[in-house]
Amino acid sequence: MKLREIAHCRAGDKGNTLNISVIAHDERDFRLLQDQVTVERVRGAYGALVKGKIDRYELPNIGALNFVLHDALAGGVTTSLSSDPHGKSFSAIMVAIDLPEPEVVYGRKINNE
User: Fold this and answer.
1) Tell me: the pLDDT tens digits for 58-109?
2) What residues contact 104, with CB distance under 8 A and at least 6 apart?
3) Which of 15, 37, 41, 106 is the most buried (most CB within 10 A)?
4) What residues does each domain of the chain span?
5) pTM, whole model, 2 decimals?
């Protein structure tokens, strides 16, 4: 299952640092996000695009995770020749992350409600 099946993302930038929020479509899926969308899984998805550390913050009250990807924008808006210096397209990478394909996630069927 792709992450996009249970969540959407929003990306923003501050210099050479990228911020990506992963927000569950349904609050019942937040636990799955907590368990499966790890720093290691995110690092694997972005590979060499992120040269610095990745921080993860949990926001259970809104059913979201927030990732801060350091040294991720080839210098940032004012110094990068990248076609996406703000990192908005990085959300597409995040929602394409493969997650385990459970038939039932925490008591709720996915895609067959």
Assistant:
1) 999 999 999 999 988 766 554 444 544 445 567 778 888 888 776 655 556 6
2) 110
3) 37
4) 3-109
5) 0.77
